Amino acid sequence: MDASLDGVELPMFPLGTVLFPHGVLPLRVFEPRYRVMVAHCLEQDARFGVVLIERGSEVGGGDTRFHVGTVAQIVQAARTPDGRFSLATVGTERIDIVEWLPDDPYPRAMVRTRADGEPTRDGTGICDAVGALLVRVHELRAQLGAAAHTGEVVLSPDLVRASFEASILSPLGPLDAQALLEHDDAVDRLEALAECLRHEVELLEFRLSD
User: Fold this and answer.
1) Does residue 102 sit in the same domain as residue 7?
2) Are residues 114 and 160 in contact, defined by beta-carbon separation less than 8 angstroms?
3) How far apart are CA 33 and CA 105, in angstroms?
4) Are residues 31 and 97 in the same domain?
5) Res. 1 pLDDT band, cuts 50 70 90
6) Which of 120, 127, 166, 167 is 20 to 30 A away from residue 147, measured at CA?
7) Are residues 24 and 107 in the same domain?
8) The domain containing residue 173 runs over which residues?
9) Looking at the structure, do residues 87 and 145 belong to the same domain, yes or no?
């Protein structure tokens, strides 16, 4: 984790989706204030914060935002002649929003790193269970013609990273994803994810049987 994030100002991009550490987030940036933000980021360290919008819209401001998010690192950027950006970003670490600053000229916040603690329990069993559930979920989604992960499910031996990798591969709604992001223990995150996946398996099996 980058301790330099503690107590610093970071440009922020509130979105209708959750970015997890190690996740890939492509963005098309057309709103003028976010064009200014991206240009600033590219001149600096090419990173900004992503937070889920609790209420409101991505466009125009006036939204209510959650207070736990993720740093997005820009790894590719292209600009069109009319000034829009196409970005490829990768999530690096979780952050707490300490204080929202005025949205001038774009959303900004004082942030601090939200570190994952060392797991307090052996998570090998739950990690294996989550991997098996992911395989089952995507098998069922494929049978229903829904978007599905077709590759092998391979999770990192590091429990913290594995918990994020599994979350990225899961077909979660934004509120469920946000709840997982806010867990500070990887085993707790995996257990909560397993519960989500079990419900998803039940739902998909019911749809197939109907």
Assistant:
1) yes
2) no
3) 6
4) yes
5) very low
6) 127
7) yes
8) 124-209
9) no
pLDDT tens profile 10-33: 999 999 999 999 999 999 999 999
Dump the DSSP string for the chain. --GGGTTEEEEEEEESS-PPTT-EEEEEE-SHHHHHHHHHHHHTTSEEEEEEEEES-SSSS--EE-SEEEEEEEEEEEE-TTS-EEEEEEEEEEEEEEEEEP-SSS-EEEEEE-PPPPPSS--HHHHHHHHHHHHHHHHHHHHTT-----S-----SSHHHHHHHHHHHS---HHHHHHHHH-SSHHHHHHHHHHHHHHHHHHHHHHHH-
Contact 41, 76 (CB under 8 A): no
One domain for residues 132 and 201: yes
For residues 74 and 173, membership in a common domain is answered with no
pTM of the model: 0.92
